[in-house]
Amino acid sequence: MSHLIAPSVLAANFAQLGTDVEMLNQSSADWIHIDVMDGRFVPNISFGFPVIQAIQKIAKKTMDVHLMIEHPELYIEQFRQVGADNITVHYEACPHLHRTLQQIKASGAKAGVALNPHTPISSLSEIIQDIDVVCLMSVNPGFGGQKFIQHTYQKIKDLKTLITQKRSACLIEIDGGVNQENAPLLLEAGADVLVAGSFVFNSENPVQTILDLKQIQK
């Protein structure tokens, strides 16, 4: 399978969000990544249900919704109703992670788990077979435009080993600081999905930037 590109609309121009989503529709992007922040689990606040529903009415790509919130289990069905195709929750926010993953799958969405930079891959050893996407945070969550954490490469390799050992089919998604320079190394290490926000939306030609990321050869 060719790797997937998931531009993050956290870096879009909120004054012309519809226009930016239409641009992603016309681009070679595979998913639209939507970061939901509650100001408690992470020190920032972003999109709520009305904005996501508005995006869903325009979007023609898979909506990849990343919940950086406390108690995500309270809102799974609502996020599914407003258009989430993938719902990713944080390991650190879910004391009953297996139950939450089953809740996501029962809603009809793909179930993802995100790991903060300090959380070891071994945390997922007993549940990796129940996960569709593991999102490795390559920056500390909460804000766009941060510097990429170099240890991410080793975490990808460790996660790939775990997936192989457990015969899981889950994808490895990288979120934070992705650019044209580190993307080939991320893919070589075993990444399947690259989330890119500032690098895409701050470029002179976002459509071309997405295409360039898509065409990288492993």
TrEMBL record:
Cofactor(s) needed, names only, are: a divalent metal cation; Mn(2+); Fe(2+); Co(2+)
**Coiled-coil segments, which residues?**
none
Gene Ontology CC, one term: cytoplasm
Q: Which reaction does it catalyse?
A: D-ribulose 5-phosphate = D-xylulose 5-phosphate
Q: Which EC class, in a word?
A: isomerase
Can you tell me which residues bind substrate? 8, 66, 142-145, 175-177, 197-198
Say if the entry is tagged with keyword Ligase: no
Q: In which pathway does it act?
A: Carbohydrate degradation
Entries under InterPro entries matching the protein: Aldolase_TIM, Ribul_P_3_epim, Ribul_P_3_epim-like, RibuloseP-bd_barrel
| Database matches in CDD domains | RPE
Query: What does the cofactor section's free text say about binding?
Result: Binds 1 divalent metal cation per subunit.
Q: Which keywords does this chain's UniProt record carry? A: Carbohydrate metabolism, Cobalt, Isomerase, Manganese, Metal-binding, Zinc
Give GO BP annotations, semicolon-separated.
Answer: pentose catabolic process; pentose-phosphate shunt
Q: Which residues bind a divalent metal cation?
A: 33, 35, 66, 175
Note the PROSITE patterns from the entry. RIBUL_P_3_EPIMER_1 (PS01085), RIBUL_P_3_EPIMER_2 (PS01086)
Q: What does this protein do?
A: Catalyzes the reversible epimerization of D-ribulose 5-phosphate to D-xylulose 5-phosphate.
Q: Which family does it belong to?
A: Belongs to the ribulose-phosphate 3-epimerase family.
Concerning NCBIfam families, the annotation shows: PRK05581.1-4 (NF004076), rpe (TIGR01163)
> Mind telling me what this protein is named?
Ribulose-phosphate 3-epimerase
Could you tell me which species this protein originates from? Rufibacter radiotolerans
